[in-house]
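User: Before I run my own analysis I want an independent prediction to cross-check against. Here's the chain; please return only the structure tokens and, at the end, one sentence I can use as a sanity check.
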Amino acid sequence: MIARIWSGESPLWRLLLPLSWLYGLVSGAIRLSYKLGFKRAWRAPVPVVVVGNLTAGGNGKTPVVIWLVEKLQQRGVRVGVVSRGYGGKAAAYPL
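Assistant: Structure tokens:
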């Protein structure tokens, strides 16, 4: 189905095209606001690595984090891992 939409063979393509224009317009405006100085990026005081993707589970993020922590610790780096966890809920954040 995605291939049919991508190639323009699906009627859904006509519906999604204006939405893609809107998405491009909004993301371009946001990018421009950073370039012109209206918005500023927040800089963490320490190096940060984010391991994630668009899907929730089953893609190997946890093993990658474990491997990365072990490698960094072998190099003498103090490591902290922050994870909400899939579907995680707490009474208050941060814990």
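Sanity check: The chain is about 45% helix and 0% strand.
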